[in-house]
Amino acid sequence: MQYPHYNPASDNRPLSDEEINDLDELLAALPTEAAMNAEAMDGYLAGLLLTPGRELSSLPGEAWLPLIWGGDGDGDSAPFVSGKQRKKVVMLVLRHLHSIATAWALRPQGWEPIFSFADGEDEDTEYADAEDWAAGFLMAVDLAPQAWAPLFDADDTAELLAPIAALGGEDGGLAEGSAAERDEASRRIPDAMLALWALRQKA
């Protein structure tokens, strides 16, 4: 099945909170455990945009879009109930992807990733947990491991990627970390992504 390419020249129409929730619910309702949630999708799209040596617009949509919903199943619409539902999800994903790229390019300090938050023991404490986001990012890395390998090996960029590997990797050091430790690592990710984006623009 063919899907649209990402078009960086398209109109920027960021998803509303309601649309993000709608997309999250559509993905959660699919008959597969492999579908991403909105947090993992957000991280996955960030990883795709940051993949070294390749413009995402050059990659066919069918090479990366189906991973978001766990792959295309048997039948014309599977795993969706209809072609209309599939098209809706694709369009929402492409809009969100473009909004990330636009935010990084035009107003980077205003960009916020989609993380989970949990209340601490007191009302004034809130812990961020980017495990799903980081796992999604690493799925993008897995699509181009050779391109990413130098960044994970170089000291400066490895430090930027360390919280993602610790939170989202199968052998991540924070798999059993405390809420405070996971919060600290999660809050390092936004600045790390902007630093990687800046490096990419200089390449």
Largest sheet: 2 strands, antiparallel
Question: Structural class of the secondary structure composition?
Answer: mainly alpha
Proportion in β-strands: under 5%
Put simply, the count of helices is 7
- Write the element-wise H/E pattern from the N-terminal end onward: HHHEEHHHH
Low-confidence stretches: none
User: Biggest sheet: strands side by side, in what order?
Assistant: 1-2
Question: Could you give a quick summary of the protein structure above?
Answer:
Helix content is 54%, strand content 4%. With 203 residues, it is mainly alpha-helical. The chain is globular.
What does this structure look like?
The protein has 203 residues and is mostly helical. 54% of the residues lie in helices and 4% in strands. It contains seven helices and two strands. It has helices at 17-28, 38-50, 83-106, 131-143, 145-153, 155-168, 179-202; strands at residues 116-119, 126-129. A two-stranded antiparallel ribbon has the order 1-2.
Q: Helices and strands in order, then pairings?
A:
Elements: H1 17-28, H2 38-50, H3 83-106, E1 116-119, E2 126-129, H4 131-143, H5 145-153, H6 155-168, H7 179-202
Antiparallel strand pairs: 1-2
Helix pairs in contact: 1-3, 2-3, 2-4, 4-6, 6-7
